Amino acid sequence: MREDIAFWEIEALRRGLLEGEFSSKELVALFLDRIERFKSLNAFVRLCDDAMKEAEKADVLLKDPVQRKRKPLLGIPVALKDVILTKGVTTTACSRILSNFLPPYSATVTTKLQEAGAIIIGKTNMDEFAMGSSNENSYFGAVKNPWDTERVPGGSSGGSAVCVSARLAPAALGSDTGGSIRQPASFCGVVGIKPTYGRVSRYGIVAFASSLDQVGTFAGTVKDAAEVMEVISGFDRNDSTSVEMEVPKYSASLTGDISGIRIGVPKEYFVGGIDAEVSDSIKKALTLFEKMGARIVDISLPHTEYALAVYYIIAPAEASSNLARYDGIRYGVRAEGANDLIDLYYKTRSEGFGPEVKRRIMLGTYVLSSGYYDAYYLKAQKVRALVAGDFKEAFDNQCDVIVCPVAPTTAFKLGDKVDDPVKMYLNDIFTIPVSLAGLPGLSLPCDFDSKGLPVGLQIVGNAFDEETVFKVAYAFECEAGLKGKHPKMVT
Amino acid sequence: MVSKEEVYKIAQLARIGITEEEAQRFSEELSSILDHVKKLDSVDVSSVEPMTHVHGSFNFFRSDRVEDSFPIEDVLANAPDTNGQFFKVPIIKG
Fold it and tell me: Catalytic pick from A25, A71, A81, A112?
């Protein structure tokens, strides 16, 4: 099978399958072969044993005139971040404590993909429990960036980002709590979208911080991302935070025309801490938007500087509560040699969690502990309301989307920031405010820096207005001419 | 500043066994993170209600109907130790 097919868009792959140019089995084999060949990137932690069998079934359905119309992803391989439950396929959140966990049920997004005909090809590497910005916190080792293997892919969904960047699958799902889809998408030069909080079901996702966690998509192009989001979005009775609202056909909004669209540019995102090259790339993109007929509006999100502090109270607080369930009793790895029950808890959790996860559980426990609750957690929830209020004001009165950087830098070197948690956390200053406000954010390649590393552009939309985000992203992608760029090592 | 004694107390609350060396490291790291968080002291929130849900609070209702749950064997399949239809734990107090 021709190698370049790995770089095709989903629509082209679908056409190839429907017209019998290749079978789903051949397509899955092509990607499995690439996964094996680029094993050193460490993007996958597990392959799905029955992917070939599922592809065979898809090949039968592809001949059925009803099924081939009904299933938009029929026969297309998709990868899942290892935080997403897959019935009968080990799911570990890349933690030692879950390293033997065989889920008795599948996440709603997994089921939705399967119902749409997608072949789940494997589980991707990630920071343990989705806590990290470099994918260096995985129990299964760090992931490498295909643009420069001495650099990190970003995190926490680093494996899914690399999977798409190296075309080890045409699309992959990830999860985003404070930037875990958008930042790795930016570092790896792919499209990544975190939808509005409540747009996609979180049922069957290993929880990190429940008021922030959202599942989203990595894909090679905006159109591919839109098509996968159409499949996984929507209300789910098993997740009471998912919202009962119709899911638009996102791919229909991709007209290429954005004349008259008002693009808000927050001044707080271009001061201090941002790399000059990144800042220049974003400004260049804004000029292009203007040329395309969009209106650039200067806006202010005055509470931006507090967002990181708010996040590092709320997310660890929720995590300390969510991760209390790992006790070595009902599932997961149990420590040996405990004297009694409480000793079992201490030993199991001490051996089962990695350093970053422990750090966040400790931090969360501290800010929630008696005497500190008002000063930290309650205060953070109030400032969170102010951060969200900034966005509301902008979308109510000034703009249709907000455009800003995804991260202050391009991909940094492995090991560069592991010794300084605060330095690592600063990676997320531009993605966290959007998460706190529960808004949709998309990361899109917009340029390359002088080292040849991709630079991401963030497009933020109003709540439940993914449509406009996709529309603006697609128009930019058409004009920017970066679509055919792939890391040298994988082409 | 989070002292080593405080770190031990938090670790106890979080049920995580830590070594002397970890206590020292956590004391430094938590202090430096909380230092950053101090920023929030300067924000006036006297007239702000804490956020409870990003899209406003709403209730989710479903009908009160008995439905199938997971078979016990499936639920116990991942347990490190079981006895019949139960999870097995070590002695409560050694």
Answer: A81
